[in-house]
Amino acid sequence: RGAAAAGRRGPSVRERGASGRTDGGARGGSRGWAGGYPEIVKENELFERYYRELGIVPDGEWGDFMAALREPLPATLRITGYRSHAREILHCLKEKYFRELQHLEVDGQKIEMPQSLSWYPEELAWHTNLSRKILRKSPQLEKFHQFLVSETECGNISRQEAVSMIPPLLLNVNPHHKILDMCAAPGSKTAQLIEMLHADMNDPFPKGFVIANDVDNKRCYLLVHQAKRLNSPCIMVVNHDASSIPNLQIDVDGRKEVLFYDRILCDVPCSGDGTMRKNIDVWKKWTTQNSLQLHGLQLRIATRGVEQLAEGGRMVYSTCSLNPIENEAVIASLLEKSQGALELADVSSELPGLKRMPGITKWKVMLKDGQWFEEWKDVPSNRQTQIRPTMFPVKDEEKLKAMNLERCLRILPHHQNTGGFFVAVLIKKSPMPWNKSQPKVHQKLPQRTGDAEVTAINSDNGSEPITEEPTLDENEESKKKQELQNSDTEQSKKEGVCGPPPSKKMKLFGFKEDPFVFLPEDDPLFLPIQKFYALDPSFPKMNLLTRTQEGKKRQLYMVSKELRNVLLNNSEKMKVINTGIKVWSRNSDGEQFGCAFRLAQEGIYTLYPFIHARIINVCIEDVKILLTQENPFLSKFSSETQKKVKDMATGSIVLKYDPDPAKPDDLQCPIVLCGWQGKTSLRAFVPKNERLHYLRMMGVEVFKAKRKEEESQNKTGEEVQHRLAQTEEGMDVEDKEHDLVTKMEAEIGEKSSHSPVENKTDV
Q1: Has 183 been labeled as part of a binding site?
Q2: What gap in Å lies between CA 189 and CA 586, rounded to an integer?
Q3: Alpha helices in 21-75, H assignment, sequence order
Q4: Residue 569 contacts by C-beta under 8 Å, 6 or more apart in sequence?
Q5: Any alpha helices (H) in 603-704, and if so which ranges?
Q6: Is the pLDDT of residue 752 over 50?
Q7: Residue 87: which pLDDT band, with cuts at 50, 70 and 90?
Q8: According to the UniProt record, where is the region Disordered (predicted)?
Q9: What is the pLDDT of residue 669?
Q10: How many whole angstroms separate alpha carbon 308 and alpha carbon 314?
Q11: Measured over all CA atoms, what is the biggest interatomic distance in the chain, rounded to whole angstroms?
Q12: pLDDT of residue 130
């Protein structure tokens, strides 16, 4: 329990950055925060003494290192790589928004032209000398800020710290990889992983998937929000303690097998002293105690990760801390316990252009009172609960050399104007020693009563808490075979239902999630949909699911075949927060239009390859009309479009724009929109930010100054909602455009069941 509490305390330091509360801040304490906050002096004598002694900063660079830490962190952004629109967004950024920044001065500071991060592939990541505070507050930058906010909402841009982009890149993800993100919230790295799965835009269902986990139930919903922007059927968000995340099983040719992951991202909770530039309260609160408390938790999480890694798989361990107790000490302990099963990968040739420092091989341990210890044998018995043997470097020179700790990399803030960061890339060559043999009877197993925690504190070598958990898991495997057969029988009674685990087996914190119910083969619901949209025979209808067992099915979601396998085989042991993308929504008066379900924009790029009817190809002028007018009459469209629509029945349609290479000035990427054809009108049914995105890409000016916008906002909002209510189409009320994050934060505090997930999906 103590270690878990430490785990909760640890992340809180770095989590505060998510709220933006401390961003920007006072420079060196010279200027106070707005709103009467006290000044924070950017000094910490213990911090300086500790890191000077450890020598992690090269000789002669200490002054630059400290000066960089006292400067606000520059704003960085990443263009979503897998979208077909990435090149268009990049072109728009460079040719329009960046050029407009060229000669600007804000608060007497000249705005530098944003620069691409030299080590990030294809110019898809950029940084600027603007702090996030200036970006939000300055009237001259309002247009650029609106662009960033809007594009972020629809998933085309992620505002993410530069160093945070490194771990997913070093995972070397391919579309067929099964990936586990162990401590995923708030989700910017998870988003990168999803993009990598969808590297081939022609494949709507890559064979790989991402299971994104977080221990904090509320932060799981931030994770859902990040993932939802990318509209992928290959992401599942789960809620577990990463240090004891359960073994999952999948069906392989009729046999149940343990799921091992090809890639694991292990970005553990940490003290966060690499984030001082944005979380300035770390200056005041920093002490070595944070690292000492977190080390055990970090080691347990990393150990659980490598246990679940496939042979030949790659795990990236990372922290936003500079401290070797949280970094090299964890990796060295893991390597030592692995007895050759793990090795550090040499990534020195990967990400050329990234300035990095090698991992260190010698360090000491310091208490918060400034007392140093060089070896475990020097630690007095009354300090042996705070300081553990695994915190010290390996003394055996031969062992130490074989570990290749210099292959770890540490990013220092002054080298490329970033935050501080640590990364290690591990390759699994064989099973972990304690997983190799699985005897039927194990030597003395701990009781599941918290004894393991006590053993961990009192053991001499600190290894028990790591080895006990997997041993217990392996021992339970034989017992579980019978349980699995029983649960199979239970499963067949309600085929395709994946409910949350029963409360007896697992305490449910936060919301009780609705079950995931796959559509039965013979469900009469599907036939009219298949007929109306002329779905291809290859359409994987078995992957359709709903979130309700009884009553009318209002939404249909879709997951990949591989995630379906995971869901169906693990409903008893896994708390799933969210999975699947919405592909169809029920219409209030749907049956009279030939089909009760209309297409949902968030799933259209997944569905489009399977749809053979109700597709209208439109020209760029038609697209502009569709996106700027609420419910335009058919007479406003080109004669070609009018002809195509003439004999088509009322109802949901697909509007497709294909670029014309002969017109290079026009938008050069395809667009697929959901729409509705009425008796006399044609409209696009697309969320607001996505509309703005497409219009920007077509060169239409969509910027509104804040004051004007605020004056007309309420009035316009009422008019739009009134028009929506009055349209002959009778569209689903769930598609009103909301501000997703605000809504989510409100609902997290107030609502139960699935509402925070279901009500957010169309934004």
Answers
A1: yes
A2: 33
A3: 45-54, 62-70
A4: 248, 249, 250, 251, 256
A5: 604-607, 620-628, 639-646, 688-697
A6: no
A7: confident
A8: 1-30, 433-501, 708-763
A9: 85
A10: 11
A11: 87
A12: 77
Per residue in 226-242, pLDDT tens?
A: 888 889 999 999 999 99
Contacts of residue 603, defined as CB under 8 A and 6 or more positions apart, other chains included, come to 231, 233, 558, 581, 582, 583, 584
Distance of CA 158 to the CA centre of its chain: 10
- Structure-token match 């964890």, residue found: 330
The two tokens of residue 469 are: 């958990």
Residues 6+ apart with CB under 8 A from 582: 555, 556, 557, 600, 602, 603, 761, 762
Radius of gyration (C-alpha) of the chain in whole angstroms: 27
Which tokens is 486 given?
A: 């029983």
Query: Which of these ranges, 138-147, 227-236, 302-311, 738-747, has the smallest mean pLDDT?
Result: 738-747
Residue with tokens 């999803």: 194
Check whether 678 is labelled as a binding-site residue: no
Within 8 A by CB and 6+ apart from 95, the residues are none
What are the structure tokens assigned to 455, written together?
A: 């053993």
Residue 181 among known ligand-binding residues: no
Q: Is 253 annotated as a binding residue?
A: no
125 marked ligand binding residue:
no
Best-predicted range by mean pLDDT (35-39, 179-183, 481-485, 553-557): 179-183
HSE-up of residue 469 (Cα within 13 Å, Cβ side)? 22
Q: What torsion, rounded to 10 degrees, do the Cα atoms 684, 688, 693, 698 define? A: 50
pLDDT(440) > 50: no
SS3 606: helix
Which top CATH class is 162-428?
alpha beta
Amino acid at 121: P
| 662: CB partners within 8 A, 6+ apart | none
Torsion from C-alpha of 8, 14, 15, 18, nearest 10 degrees: -170
pTM beyond 0.90, yes or no = no
Residue ranges of alpha helices (H) inside 308-339 are 328-338
Is 187 marked as a binding-site residue? Answer: yes
706-720 average pLDDT score: 44
Q: Where are the domains of the chain?
A: 74-159, 162-428, 614-701
Does the annotation place 184 within a ligand binding site?
yes
Determine the pLDDT at residue 512: 61
CB proximity list for 384: less than 8 A, separation 6 or greater: none
pLDDT at 37: 52
Active site residues: 320
- With b meaning 16 or more CB within 10 Å and e meaning fewer, what string describes 25-61? bbeebeeebeeeeeebebebeebeebbeebebbeeee
Task: Judge whether residue 64 has pLDDT over 90.
Answer: yes
The residues that bridge with 421 in the sheet, in sequence order, are 411
Residue 6 assigned ligand-binding role: no
Is residue 186 marked as binding? yes
**Beta carbons within 8 Å of 614's beta carbon, 6+ residues apart:** 532, 533, 534, 648, 651, 652, 653, 654
Residues 6+ apart with CB under 8 A from 496: 517, 518, 519, 520, 545, 568
Residue 94 DSSP symbol: I
Question: Does 267 appear as a known binding residue?
Answer: yes
